[in-house]
Amino acid sequence: MSAALNMLSKSTIRECINLVISSEGGYSNHPNDKGGETYFGITKPFAESIGIKFPPTKKDAIKAYDLIGRKHGVFYLDAATAYFILDGGVLFGIQRFIMWFQYAINVTGGFDLKRDGIIGKKTLSAYEKCDKDQVIMLLHRRVINHHRAVVTRDFRQAVFIRGWLKRAEKRLKGYMELKNSIGKGTCDE
Questions:
Q1: pLDDT grade, residue 118 (50/70/90)?
Q2: What's the 3-state SS for 91-106?
Q3: Hey, how many other C-beta atoms are within 10 angstroms of the C-beta on 178?
Q4: Is it the case that residue 5 has pLDDT exceeding 60?
Q5: Cα end-to-end distance, the chain, whole Å
């Protein structure tokens, strides 16, 4: 990897964001949902924290996800991985999900990355040296196990388990489709 970081093109970033938004749908405010009131996957407190009126428009949601991805280095990854991380980050919090990603890189590649929730040069370099599919599969299994543990701790969350598992499978399928549609999943700019 060169010293310069290469960000995905605007159109590829938009494609990743649109895939996430398509999984989120519209308004949600289930009484058992600890995330509370959301629209396009954006919570009211988060929207307010970045100056977006709630409920956000689709344009606002795109802006929010673009901000999240850029702030945490997600868009320096290949398109398939960027989508996977951004989509998982919406559900679990982007920093937490990136820390899980960094853990998966460490385990898969034998690295000792600092798990700081930011994708920088060291994380990118380590990921490039790993079998990316193994990293993503380990992260996918972590997600599945997390969902099951949440339901075990709080059975009121069981109402969401089918949707969570379906979303996890959709995320993995989206990763594979993006990876296969662009060859090896390298940055396009």
A1: very high
A2: HHCHHHHHHHHHHHHH
A3: 21
A4: yes
A5: 14
Nearest to 186 by CA among 70, 68, 71, 76: 76
Residue written as token pair 């370099």: 125
- Percent of the chain at pLDDT > 90 equals 85
- Among the listed residues 17, 50, 44, the one whose alpha carbon sits nearest the alpha carbon of residue 28: 44
Q: How far is residue 176 from each of residues 76, 77, 97, measured CA to CA in Å?
A: 18, 15, 19
Per-residue DSSP letters for 46-94? HHHHTT-PSSPPHHHHHHHHHHHHHHTTGGGS-HHHHHHHHHHHHHH-H
DSSP 3-state of 35: coil
pLDDT at 56 over 80: yes
Q: Is the pLDDT score of 187 beyond 50?
A: no
How far is residue 128 from each of residues 18, 44, 57, 121, 172, measured CA to CA in Å?
Answer: 25, 36, 36, 10, 19
Tokens 């990921």 map to which residue? 127
What b-and-e string marks burial along 50-62, b requiring 16 or more CB atoms within 10 Å of the CB?
A: eebeebbeeebbb
pTM confidence score: 0.92
Q: Provide the 8-state DSSP code for 130.
A: S
In Å, what is the CA distance from 155 to each residue of 158, 162, 166? 5, 13, 18
In angstroms, the CA 26 to CA 29 distance is 10
Residue 132 DSSP one-character state: H
- Can you name the residues that pair with 28 across neighbouring β-strands? 38
